[in-house]
Amino acid sequence: MGELLFAQMPYKTVESSPGNYFHSPLLGEHNGYVFGELLGLSADEIARLEREKVLY
Length: 56
Description:
mainly alpha
């Protein structure tokens, strides 16, 4: 994926730590969770929407 740059504080304090930084979600990365678990669509319905280019 290459090098990732993150904005962060230009200074450090005793309480601050580098922390864990996560990338933003990729397009469609959480489709299974959102459409399957939250909205209750079946795997077949999600696959159909992907074939029809409704979901990516």
